[in-house]
Every structure is written in C-alpha cells, then in structure tokens.
Amino acid sequence: MVSPFNFARIPLIYFGPGRINLLPVLIRRFGTRIILVSNDSSFNRTEAAGELFSSLRQEGIEYTGISIPGEPTPDNIDNAVERFMDEKTDAVIAVGGGSVMDAGKAISAMLYRRESVMEYLEGVGNREHPGTKVPFIAIPTTAGTGSEATKNAVISRIGRDGFKRSLRHDNFVPDIALVDPKLSVS
Asked: Between the CA of residue 62 and those of 92, 109, 128, 161, what are the distances in Å?
C-alpha cells in the first residue's frame, strides 16, 4: 500500500532541442536584470554559452555571472547574497548540473534576507523560511538530479563539522524549467 503524499506545484516546463533560445523572452516576464549562476568549467566554455550570452546582450538583458565550482556551501550562498543584496534583481537563472541549480535556488530564496542561509537549513538552523524568493529559472545541463523540479536546495559543508542539508519550501520549486537535451551533449 502506498502512503498518502502531496505534490508541490510543478514548474512551467519547456522541453526540447533548442529551448535555451527561449530564455531571453522568458526572462522578460520578470524584467531585464538577472543573476546567471553556472560553473566555469562546464557550461561557460561551450558554444551554447557564447550564443546565450550574445542573445542576452542583444535583447538588452543585464546579467552578472556567478560561478559555483562544486556543491554549494553556506559561504557560496551568503557571499552571493551579500554581493547582490543592494541591487535590483528581476530573476535568478541557473544553467548547469544539480549543484548549480541548488545554488541558484538558494540565492533566489535568500537574496533579500539579512540572515545566513545556515539559519534556515533543516537540521542545522532554527528558523523557518517564509518562502519568499526572486523568480527562478532552472536550466539543467545534466540528467538525473531533478533539481529543476524540486522544492529543496542542497547545501553542504565539508570538514569536521560538515553536513549536507536542505533549504526547503514549496515556493522554491523553480518558476520555469528549460530542459534542452542539446545542453547535455558533451
């Protein structure tokens, strides 16, 4: 027998080859100033990245990039939030694997909060996040993590007091997921 369960809302999903080309139009639903979260060693070095950056500039979309080198840490999230706290940001876009999408999701959720993300992590902090966030678009470049359709962002710390915990709220499901299979071809 299956136990009862609930689904969080699902993101608006655009699936298919070349769907990355929809991004400038989709961003405009929210505005023109974005934070683009990625990983310097993967997506940013592809032809698709060059084309995306060019199309964003052509459409007048202002973007600032943040690179997440591996699993996001509390310091990664807190530093990004501090960097952009006083700037107007219309949306956060994450292009990459599960770690990049988790980082983007956490930045979106923490952008205008003054506390550290640590205070909201399950099993670590003692605060409950109210669920407010900046609009978030997830663009996976790998298969299998499912972060483009989940409500949690996994944050890790390595070391003696290490952990792997979630920042979680039903509102953290991405607003839009652009799933372009061409992006997973190496």
From this structure: 12, 20, 32, 39
Confidence of residue 6 (pLDDT cuts 50, 70, 90): low
Q: pTM value?
A: 0.92
For range 71-100, the mean pLDDT: 95
Q: Which residue bears the tokens 């292009």? A: 95
Q: CA 8, CA 23: separation in Å to the nearest integer?
A: 24
Q: In the block, which residue shows the tokens 């990245």?
A: 49
Ramachandran category for residue 31: left, alpha or beta (phi over 0 → left; psi -120 to 50 → alpha): left
Please give the Cα distance from 166 to 41 (Å, whole number).
25
Q: What is the pLDDT of residue 4?
A: 66
Element (H, E) at 98: helix 98-110
The predicted structure's pLDDT at residue 143: 79
Q: Which residues contact 137 (CB under 8 A, 6 or more apart)?
A: 23, 26, 27, 91, 92, 93, 94, 174, 175, 176, 177, 178
Token representation of residue 2: 């299956």
Q: Where are the beta strands (DSSP E) in the chain?
A: 12-15, 33-38, 62-67, 91-96, 136-140, 152-157, 163-168, 176-179
